[in-house]
Specification:
Two copies of one chain form a homodimer. In chain A, α3 packs across α4. In chain A, β5, α11 and β6 form a beta-alpha-beta unit. By secondary structure, chain A is of the alpha/beta class. The first copy, chain A, has a five-stranded parallel β-sheet, sandwiched between helices. A two-stranded antiparallel ribbon of chain A has the order 1-2. Chains A and B meet through α1, α6, α8 and α10 of A and α4, α6, α8 and α10 of B. Chain A binds a DNA duplex through α2.
Chain lengths: 293, 293
DNA sequence: AAAGTCTTGACACAACTTAGACAGTAGGCT
DNA sequence: AGCCTACTGTCTAAGTTGTGTCAAGACTTT
């Protein structure tokens, strides 16, 4: 899905990366990189990917890495100076997002994807970063606008990932949040993990009325409904019957419900904890159990 | 149904696209494009489709793509079968989304991107589809869950586009919605168009408190703030001073404000209509005006 | 008749190419 | 210190390519 078509002239690359055209040619001569396409007449035509690579390399050089090593590091796709752990990446991501620097955020994330499996990135970088920012907001160290910017940006990233890995063949699930819930990220992460686990997932966004969920589940043949709950909602106020009648299996994951798992049980649903990996593992036996009856 | 009828003389095309007639002829000679119909006497007659194509190509060139490559890219994106108009695509998209068939939706959208310039897809496919679904919801022909699914899916698409076209060099803008607004799509489309117009856009998601917007604008050096308003909010209830103090230029676009443009003026902001293309055009003189003072 | 458009050939200039040379820096060795 | 070497970024020079514009003479449209 990447744009490797060569379209940018060397002057354009010079302007965007700040690397002189002479230097770009010299690098190609010396290190064999980048090696852009050529026009029929022999002019260099750099691709979007080349631009990103050069930005990354320049970033490393600015950080003190020798040019030859930076190029080599990029070509090998490995960080020689020890792969940076998710915690570091999460901190850097937080810093970039608080500065509203989405270009750096993008670079950090793409590095994270290269270095770690998707699940790790989502939980230990993205999710952790969001938690830190949320904490900062509670302590008044982060403004609401900063928090909005960061969570909007990361939500977009997650949804991009979700859309990227298209439909599967497994049983169909519906994912939303409990009514009244405003925080969407938890449900989005759940949807992502479930889709990656092979389910066919329909993600509905936050705050879908329970009655509508039911008809939607019937229409799409959903075998289970997953609802996320982060805010400490008064669970008692939810209609019990609605939850019960929704679908063969009803599941609730999320932080808010952790205080009182029994409350969920009393509503006729199952509480599957706060960890999306746990959710995926515990859901399977539940589905089978429901299928046997 | 098609727009391929040749109706525009070369002078009209020159005026609309800003490309000189000599250049248009030269492109035809060199790249074989555009190849408009001819009058009985041999004069070129360009079609609406040609105009859109030229606008797209010009946009790519402005973005740094070499002219020959821009034309080539356009021609390669066109090699598919008979192009379906945006209206048809919007209808097919609506149908797919109501069926919660995101795979088909994805296919329709990627076809739309191939066949039409981005602006057209966003306005005449995505936006139009959302409007149809919204109308259906008001008429109880579409359930809330279906509406949620569709708007969540399309929001993800839009945000993916927004993230895809990274930062620019132009003046910095903040985009959010009026406080209390729940519909996010309008602001997202505005953010997308503004970024595409060359601005550096920070998208904050919906519903950011005005006070926080202000400090965020100062921190990021934003030269203007764009707020979308779709719901018929009681504008009078907003604090006037807050709006005034926000930034050099404060702008409000969206459907809700159309009823009473003066109300916006009284708050110290400018109302720039409901059309994102209009927004982009009207914003530039406002920015300059503010810059001169 | 005036204004606009056609084709073809030509032109100017910016941008690009290659190959080689050069100067500054950093580190190792005597 | 002094010297050597490797590395790096910049520069020069001569030739090629890409791109926009123009001119001349014939034809079309209004």
């Amino acid at each position: 899905m990447r744009n490797d078509l060569g379209v940018y002239t060397i002057a354009e690359v010079e302007e965007r990366t700040g690397l002189s055209s002479a230097l770009l040619r010299q690098w190609e001569r010396r290190y064999g990189f980048p090696r852009p396409e050529r026009s029929p007449g022999g002019h260099r035509l750099y691709s979007e990917t080349d631009l990103e690579a050069l930005a990354q390399i320049k970033h490393w050089i600015a950080g003190g890495v020798a040019p030859a090593q930076a190029v080599k590091r990029y070509l090998e796709g490995l960080t020689q100076e020890g792969p940076r752990p998710p915690e570091t990446l999460a901190l850097e991501l937080e810093e970039a997002l608080l500065r509203a620097d989405s270009e750096t955020a993008e670079r950090i994330l793409s590095e994270a994807y290269r270095l770690h499996p998707l699940e790790t990135v989502v939980i230990e970088v993205i999710s952790s970063c969001l938690r830190q920012i949320g904490d900062g907001w509670h302590l008044d160290r982060v403004t609401t606008a900063q928090e909005h910017f960061a969570s909007t940006y990361l939500r977009g990233t997650l949804q991009g990932l979700f859309n990227l890995m298209g439909g599967s063949l497994g049983p169909t699930l519906l994912v939303s949040t409990l009514p009244g819930e405003l925080h969407e990220i938890g449900s989005l992460i759940a949807a992502l993990f479930l889709r990656r686990a092979g389910y066919t997932v329909h993600y509905l966004g936050p705050n879908t009325p329970l009655a509508d969920l039911r008809s939607f589940a019937e229409r799409t043949g959903a075998r289970a409904i997953v609802l996320s709950a982060i805010q400490p909602i008064s669970l008692e106020s939810l209609p019990r019957l609605a939850l019960l009648g929704l679908a063969p299996v009803v599941v609730v994951g999320g932080r808010a419900a952790a205080d009182d798992p029994d409350a969920i049980k009393r509503l006729g649903a199952h509480y599957l904890g706060n960890d999306p990996r746990e959710l995926v593992e515990k859901l399977m036996p539940l589905m089978q159990e429901a299928g046997l009856r």
